[in-house]
Specification:
Elements: H1 10-29, E1 35-36, E2 42-43, E3 48-49, E4 56-57, E5 484-488, E6 495-499, E7 532-536, E8 543-547, E9 580-584, E10 591-595, E11 627-631, E12 638-642, E13 675-679, E14 686-690, E15 722-726, E16 733-737, E17 769-773, E18 780-784, E19 821-828, E20 842-845, E21 853-858, E22 868-871, H2 878-892, E23 899-904, E24 907-915, E25 924-925, H3 932-936, E26 937-943, E27 967-968, E28 974-975
């Protein structure tokens, strides 16, 4: 602690006295004594005074002397004065030390820009740090990485149109460095000036742009026409035949631009295929050439129907379909048609191809019956069921059917079986008595029971046997080796008791006998004194060559022998290995007591390899003799021995203090031992040593690596996605992974981590706002993004009308363009016609824009003047009534009714001329329900129209989104026109 100054003299004396009094106490309790600095500061033991600062230091840094490992030392431990407080930096940019006191944010060891650290070390050169790093192209930096706030997310744009940078956050689609239209990028940078981008580029001559290059959707594929009649452009894709710049009829182009106003006047216009002033044999009423299959029933040409080809009700030649008309109509399921309602050999009377099994009995093809397969009365081949017809019918109870008897089937249609009492010679039967017994006249195999078949017929009734030995021979003797036996005579009428030849009768009388010595004993030896002899075995099949006992055979096996040593020699000494022995004389009548050579007698005799005069196997040489030779205990091998000595690794003599297995004075321990005790070269003194080991930080010996510890690290330090350390045994490197910015997990110093190192500029599609993480994981990014309802067609969107309501030109999920024209139908029942339409009955059509128009059926030329007449007669067919309705509707179409009609057979299809939900209107029938007109006139109201339906206050992108009395205001909201 620092000692505060005291008053002069008195304070000093007092302090000195106290210090002197405390000396004994300090000496006994504190060791060593603390140090006093020149300023009066006391530094504890182990610390010292700084050279130029009133502070204690624990290292050499601050003593004013530059020591090893120091970059500088200015006598203090302060930052910002040219030498930092740890003496590791002279506080200049480019020394690899980040000197925060000098305002450094980074230091990569150089003073170059564009390498992640600026030349003045004051910037990490990352967008969002508030420093405009022009060396890396930044033109702005507003301390964030969000676009849309005057500085782009990558700091490369100030987000103004004309700066050559496409700022998507500002809804820019292009930026060519200027604010002029007509050069491929509009003056406001919101359009690349191409048709189909949803932006009307008037500089390019566009009058509309609905975001696609498709015709017939209110804007032509080249964006030069809004596809409305009267704009002077003939839009073929929406069915315009002409467009003379107005919507007035009678000037050569109809008010709906769909007609040259000529069909039915008897003169063929350029858009007509024909014109006969109405329906004729060659021309339809709509001025198209009459062709069977055109979908128009031309009664004048004799057509009964026309479904554009074959249908279930209409033939391809436009006649009504019926079975028996001679025309095969496959749509109605006909397979054939022979022009009659009777069966033929090629066609059933229901117009299907005849085949056996169709459950239709067709006598013309030879069928007697047909039950669709086997039945009790009919076979599957359409013949009557009968056993013996060679056709298996299990439904009729047949198990088989081969006609007459066959090897497999009896003639009663049951399987051929022996014992069924049915004699079936085709199956090989010679008899069948209805049983499977073998002791009567017929065997279980349906063959006769005869003498010699080995089966005794005891039951008859016609052939009785006394015996049956399986043959028809009268035997005269037993089989060889059978002394007595019983057989049957040749006629199976008498039993024969016989005798036979056998081994041991003393006579060699059968080919199987090799010998016969009159007994059935197998002898094992000759009589004593006979060394070899011959005899016969017990089965007379082998001649036996035998031996006998005798003197010299090595066994004392007869009373006459005193001894027998296996020879007839008088030995003179013992065999090798026997110091003494007893043998036998040559006649086995007396023993001999002898001596002989042996191992250990000191003389190499017989099979000996060596003989050292003893029978001991020595195990080692005398001490001090590392190697020597001796003989083993059996004199069969020379022993190469070793003996104890200094350096053999064992302390095995009183003279040895230690022995480490060598005669070397080592200087260090073997690898793996941090410390050890070894022995000097003379085994007279121990050595206390140190040595290399795994974990000492140095790759030694067999080590594959050494990272200075004995730990199996599990991951890299933070900031290293991968690294290599060493395992705990230094035997293998560890390839590890570690936490880092961009791994998706908030680790270490991270504030956030979104799984990447990107400064996102906007949210993923569908998210109006979101929070991501910046590229260094040091700060969250609050972003905005594209979504359905933002008025811009983004991501998977097909359209976007600036809202997510069901109204407007786009549906609520931005997946379907719903600006569409309403459609409906009026049809006449095919079973009715003009006679079913009552004069004066009406129907009303409404286009949602003009007053509804009421149409009146007129048969007599008299009708209500406020209605539009539909001129028909009672003789009209359904198709003619439909054509009259279509003509009446198209006659007023345009000024009073924005609906056009087309006719196909008995159906009138209605299509609104303009897209919009206002066209979804009911078609009303004003006749009473009791009226035949009401019953036979079928209507489907106008539906399917979309657009022009959002209420005031709803966000929008174009006028077509809003109700017809509203417009899409500049604020992108439906409202009343200004």
């Amino acid at each position: 602690m620092r000692r505060e100054p005291h008053p002069p003299i008195t304070g000093r004396i007092t302090a000195l006295a106290l210090a002197l009094l405390a000396l004994p106490f300090l000496g006994s309790c504190f060791e060593p004594i603390s140090i006093e600095c020149p300023s009066g500061l006391f530094c504890p033991a182990g610390q010292k005074c700084a050279a130029k600062q009133d502070v204690c230091i624990t290292t050499d840094c601050g003593d004013g002397v530059i020591q090893q490992g120091e970059a500088c030392d200015d006598g203090n431990i302060l930052d910002g004065d040219g030498c930092n407080k740890t003496c590791t930096s002279n506080e200049v940019c480019g020394n690899k030390v980040v000197d925060v006191a000098r305002g450094e944010l980074c230091d990569d060891g150089n003073t170059r820009d564009k390498d992640g650290c600026s030349a003045d070390c004051k910037s990490s050169e990352l967008c969002g740090n508030g420093i405009v790093d022009r060396a890396v192209g930044e033109v702005c930096d507003d301390f964030n990485t969000r676009s849309g706030d005057g500085c782009s997310a990558d700091c490369l744009s100030i987000e103004t149109c004309g700066n050559g940078y496409v700022d998507t956050a500002k809804n820019e689609k292009c930026d060519d460095g200027n604010n002029e239209s007509g050069d491929g990028c509009s003056a406001d940078c919101k359009s690349q000036e191409s048709c189909g981008n949803g932006y009307v580029d008037t500089a390019k001559g566009e009058v509309c742009d609905d975001g696609n290059n498709v015709n017939a959707d209110g804007c032509s594929s080249d964006c030069k026409s809004n596809e409305t009649c009267g704009n002077g452009i003939k839009d073929i894709s929406v069915g315009e035949f002409c467009d003379d710049g107005n919507t007035v009829s009678g000037d050569g182009c109809s008010s709906d631009c769909k007609s040259g106003e000529g069909c039915g006047n008897g003169v063929r216009d350029s858009d007509e295929q024909c014109d006969d002033g109405g329906e004729s044999v060659s021309c339809n009423a709509n001025c198209t050439l009459r062709i069977c299959g055109d979908g128009i029933v031309n009664a004048t040409a004799g057509e009964q129907c026309d479904d554009r080809g074959e249908s279930p009700n209409c033939n391809a030649n436009c006649t009504r379909r019926r079975c028996g008309d001679g025309i095969v109509n496959s749509s109605a399921g006909e397979q054939c048609d022979n022009g009659t309602t009777a069966d033929s050999d090629t066609c059933d009377n229901d117009c299907t191809i005849p085949y056996c099994g169709d459950r239709h009995t067709n006598a013309a093809v030879g069928e007697v019956c047909d039950t669709g397969g086997n039945s009790l009365t009919c076979n599957a081949n359409c013949k009557p069921a009968a056993c013996g017809d060679k056709y298996l019918n299990t439904e009729a109870g047949e198990q088989c059917d081969d006609g007459p008897n066959s090897p497999y089937c009896d003639n009663d249609c049951t399987p051929a079986l022996c014992g069924d009492k049915t004699l079936n010679t085709a199956a090989g039967e010679k008899c069948d008595d209805g049983n499977t017994s073998n002791d009567d006249d017929c065997l279980s195999t349906c063959q006769p029971n005869i003498c010699g078949d080995g089966r005794v017929n005891v039951s008859g009734p016609t052939r009785f046997e006394s015996c049956d030995d399986g043959n028809t021979t009268t035997e005269t003797e037993c089989a060889y080796n059978t002394r007595t036996c019983t057989y049957c005579n040749a006629t199976c009428s008498s039993v024969l008791n016989l005798t036979g030849r056998y081994c041991g009768d003393g006579s060699k009388n059968d080919p199987s006998e090799k010998c016969d010595d009159g007994n059935t004993t197998t002898e094992t030896e000759c009589s004593y004194g006979t060394e070899t002899c011959s005899a016969c075995d017990a089965s007379c099949s082998t001649v036996l060559n035998l031996t006998g006992r005798y003197c010299g055979d090595g066994a004392k096996n007869d009373p006459s022998e005193v001894c027998d040593d296996g020879n007839k020699v008088n030995e003179s000494s013992c065999p090798y290995g026997n110091a003494t022995c007893t043998t036998c004389n040559a006649t086995c009548s007396a023993t001999l007591s002898l001596t002989g050579p042996y191992c250990g007698d000191g003389i190499r005799n017989g099979p000996e390899v060596c003989d050292d005069g003893n029978t001991t196997s020595e195990s080692s040489c005398p001490y001090g003799t590392p190697n020597c030779t001796a003989c083993n205990a059996t004199c069969t091998a020379v022993l190469n021995l070793t003996g104890p000595y200094c350096g053999d690794g064992s302390k095995n003599d009183p003279s040895e203090v230690c022995d480490d297995g060598n005669k070397v004075t080592e200087s260090e321990c073997p690898y793996g031992n941090a410390t050890c005790v070894l022995c000097n070269a003379t085994c007279s003194a121990p050595l206390n040593l140190t040595g290399p080991y795994c974990g000492d930080g140095t790759k030694n010996g067999s080590e594959a690596c050494d990272d200075g510890n004995n730990t199996n690290e599990s991951s890299c330090p933070y900031g290293n996605a991968s690294c290599t350390t060493c395992n705990a045994t230094c035997s293998a490197p560890l390839n590890l992974s570690g936490p880092y910015c961009g791994d998706g997990i908030k680790n270490g110093p991270e504030v956030c981590d979104d799984g990447n190192t990107t400064n996102e500029s906007s949210c993923p599609y569908g998210n109006a706002t979101c929070t991501t993480c910046n590229a260094t994981c040091s700060a969250p990014l609050n972003l905005t993004g594209p979504y359905c309802g933002d008025g811009i067609k983004n991501g998977p969107e097909v359209c976007d009308d600036n809202n997510t309501n069901a109204c407007g030109t786009c549906n609520n999920t931005c997946s379907t363009i719903q600006l569409a024209k309403a459609t409906g139908t009026i049809s006449i029942k095919t079973s009715s016609g003009g006679s079913d339409m009552r004069d004066g009955d009406t129907f009303t059509v409404n286009d949602g824009l003009n007053p509804p128009v009421t149409f009146e059926f007129d048969k007599n030329g008299s009708y209500n003047s406020s209605r539009v007449p539909v001129s028909i007669t009672s003789g009209y067919t359904p198709s003619q009534v439909a054509s009259a309705i279509s003509t009446a509707i198209n006659g007023v179409s345009g000024t009073y009714l924005e609906i056009t009609a087309t006719v196909s057979s008995n159906v009138v299809s209605l299509t609104h001329k303009q897209a919009g939900s206002f066209g979804n209107q009911l078609i009303l029938k004003t006749a009473s329900n009791a009226s035949s007109t009401n019953t036979n006139l079928l209507v489907t109201g106008m539906s399917g129209g979309g657009g022009f339906d959002c209420p005031a206050g709803t966000e929008c992108s174009r006028n077509e989104d809003c109700s017809t009395d509203l417009v899409c205001l500049p604020s992108s909201v439906c409202g009343t026109p200004p």
